[in-house]
Design goal:
This protein has 278 residues and is mainly alpha-helical. It has helices at residues 13-26, 32-51, 56-65, 73-92, 102-121, 142-167, 176-204, 212-231, 236-277. Helix 8 (212-231) packs antiparallel against helix 9.
C-alpha cells in the first residue's frame, strides 16, 4: 500500500508527484484523485499547446483560396468579445492561468481571421460579410487587399481597444459584480455568434471556407476543457460557458463531416453519369 508523508496536503502537486514517482519505481497504482489530477494537468497542457496553432489551418485556408466564402463574421467577433471578457474576469478572480491560457492564443488568431475577412469579404456590395452577415468575397491582389483590410478594420479595431481599455481599468470602471454579469452574458454572445453560422451551414448544405482541422481541434479542446474545469473546481458559470461552446463547436464539426460526405457522393454520382454518357 502506498504511504504518503504526513506533511502533504490531501490533494496537491507534491502529493501526486510523489504517487506517480512511486508508481514508476514500485509499481504502486496512484489514487483515483491523483490520477484525475494528472489527467487534468496533462489535458490542460495539451489544450494550451494545441491552441497555439488551432486556427492556423483556418488562416492558411483563407489565404490560400483568397476567399472567406461562407464564414460569418459574427461568429469570430463573438469569440473575440467573449474571450476578452473571460480573460479579464479570470484575472480579476485570480484563477490559475493554466485554466484559460489557450484563450490568449485563440484571441490573437481570431483577430488575424477578422483582419482577413475585412480584406477579402468587404466591398462586395450590400450583402457584405464584414458589414453584414454574408460573405461573397472577390479575389483581390495583395495591394488592394492590404488597403481594404486596413480601412475596413479601423472602426472595429477602435471599438475593441475602447472596450479592452474599460475592462482593464479595474473596479474603478467596472465592479466585480458587473464584471461577473458580463462574463455570464458571454455565453449568450457565443450563442448569438455561432447560431447564424450553424443555420447558414444547414441552409447552404455547405460550411464554405471553414477549416475542418481547426474545427476538430476546437471541438476536442472544448470537450477536454470541460473535464479540466470540473476537476479543478471551476464555477458553474465556467462549466456552462465551456459546455455550450463545446456543443456548438461540435455541431459545426458534425456539419462539416456530413456535408463533405454528401459532396463526395455527388461528385461520385456525377462522374458515373459522365462515363455512361461517353
Amino acid at each position: 500500500k502506498l504511504e504518503r508523508p504526513p506533511t502533504m496536503s490531501p490533494l496537491s502537486l507534491e502529493r501526486c508527484a510523489f504517487e506517480f514517482r512511486e508508481t514508476a519505481t514500485r509499481g504502486v497504482f496512484p489514487t483515483p484523485e491523483c490520477l484525475k489530477f494528472g489527467i487534468s494537468k496533462g489535458l490542460s497542457l495539451g489544450i494550451v499547446a494545441g491552441a497555439v496553432l488551432v486556427k492556423v489551418p483556418q488562416i492558411l485556408r483563407i489565404v490560400s483560396n483568397k476567399s472567406v466564402n461562407g464564414l460569418r463574421v459574427g461568429m469570430f467577433r463573438s469569440e473575440v468579445l467573449s474571450g476578452t471578457v473571460a480573460v479579464v474576469y479570470f484575472v480579476r478572480q485570480r484563477i490559475a492561468i493554466a485554466a484559460y491560457a489557450e484563450i490568449f492564443f485563440i484571441l490573437a488568431q481570431n483577430l488575424v481571421i477578422l483582419w482577413l475577412i475585412a480584406g477579402y469579404g468587404a466591398g462586395d456590395g450590400g450583402d457584405d460579410g464584414w458589414k453584414g452577415t454574408k460573405t461573397t468575397s472577390k479575389k483581390r491582389t495583395s495591394p488592394s487587399f492590404a488597403k481594404t483590410a486596413f480601412t475596413e478594420s479601423i472602426p472595429s479595431a477602435l471599438t475593441y481597444v475602447s472596450i479592452l481599455t474599460v475592462l482593464c481599468m479595474g473596479d474603478t470602471a467596472i465592479s466585480d459584480t458587473a464584471l461577473e454579469s458580463l462574463y455570464n452574458a458571454t455565453t449568450l454572445v457565443l450563442i448569438t455568434g455561432r447560431a447564424p453560422q450553424i443555420y447558414a451551414n444547414h441552409v447552404n448544405k455547405s460550411t464554405g471556407e471553414l477549416s475542418v482541422v481547426s474545427q476538430a481541434l476546437m471541438c476536442a479542446g472544448a470537450l477536454a476543457r470541460i473535464f479540466t474545469t470540473a476537476q479543478e473546481g471551476g464555477g458553474n458559470s465556467m462549466l456552462l460557458g465551456y459546455g455550450i461552446g463545446a456543443g456548438m463547436n461540435c455541431v459545426i464539426f458534425g456539419q462539416m463531416l456530413v456535408f463533405a460526405e454528401k459532396k463526395e457522393k455527388k461528385k461520385t454520382s456525377a462522374g458515373r453519369g459522365k462515363r455512361k454518357t461517353n
